[in-house]
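re: the backbone from monday

yeah here it is again, tokenized this time
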């Protein structure tokens, strides 16, 4: 059997070139997946998978890597993506689940779950940075994929906007941490709040800075200081090792370890 000639795609050829190349090779439905919150020490890990339709219908105005967009631009692009997607899925993994399974393993599984929910099933998948096995279709890991692949960039926007909305909602429940400002990432203000109040239930206890803040707060409580927001009868410090370095249109959302089907992404608040 003769194999088709090898395709060479330049990284500077445009955001839609990789998908268009795959479409010409017979892969009609190309799915992309990305995550948000991998580097945060509080809040959930959110992954998203997207299939954009071929042709002009799948061209999203303003689409780019979510990290390169302002919050207002991300919200606008989010709406544009949702108006065009052929399929999408979002998976939300709680902080305790990240602690239980480890960041990298949890991230891979969440990406796999998001890709597995896409309906109709993609013919080919693109992932940002590292490959995801067990999807059942051919795939390619793309270095800085959210900057060179439209479907990965679209997934990065869905994941980022969904997670930012969750963190803004958590800010109302835990205003002392200012989650709406830093979205759970490590900043000077966040570090100061951790030192003062200890971690809350939305912090990832397996992270070194959170574990250290928890240990310090437990010592303060033992000395008679008021309990922190995480402390509801905690009697002992558990030493935690440092972490080593959908449906079509309706969509599916997995949140806090439980499956929630046919929930519009706009309504996700926790």
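seq for it, each position gets an aa:
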């Amino acid at each position: 059997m003769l194999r088709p000639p090898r395709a060479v795609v330049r990284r500077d050829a445009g955001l839609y070139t990789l998908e268009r190349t795959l479409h010409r090779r017979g892969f009609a439905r190309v799915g992309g997946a990305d995550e948000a919150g991998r580097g945060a020490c509080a809040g959930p890990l959110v992954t998203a998978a997207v299939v954009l339709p071929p042709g002009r219908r799948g061209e999203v105005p303003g689409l780019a890597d979510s990290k390169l967009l302002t919050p207002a631009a991300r919200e606008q692009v989010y709406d544009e993506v949702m108006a065009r997607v052929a399929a999408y899925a979002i998976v939300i993994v709680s902080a305790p689940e990240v602690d239980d399974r480890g960041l990298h393993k949890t991230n891979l599984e969440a990406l796999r779950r998001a890709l597995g929910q896409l309906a109709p099933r993609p013919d080919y998948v693109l992932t940002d940075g590292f490959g995801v096995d067990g999807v059942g279709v051919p795939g390619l890991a793309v270095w800085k994929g959210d900057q060179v692949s439209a479907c990965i960039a679209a997934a990065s926007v869905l994941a980022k906007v969904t997670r930012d909305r969750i963190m803004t909602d958590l800010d109302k429940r835990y205003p002392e941490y200012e989650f709406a400002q830093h979205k759970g990432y490590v900043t000077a203000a966040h570090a100061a709040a951790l030192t003062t109040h200890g971690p809350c239930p939305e912090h990832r206890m397996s992270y070194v800075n959170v574990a250290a803040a928890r240990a310090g707060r437990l010592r303060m409580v033992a000395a008679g200081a008021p309990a922190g927001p995480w402390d509801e009868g905690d009697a002992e410090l558990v030493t935690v090792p440092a972490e080593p370095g959908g449906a079509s249109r309706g969509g599916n959302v997995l949140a806090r370890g439980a499956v929630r089907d046919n929930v519009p992404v706009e309504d996700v608040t926790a």
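Strands lie at 30-36, 45-51, 87-93, 124-128, 139-142, 252-255, 258-261. The longest strand covers residues 30-36.
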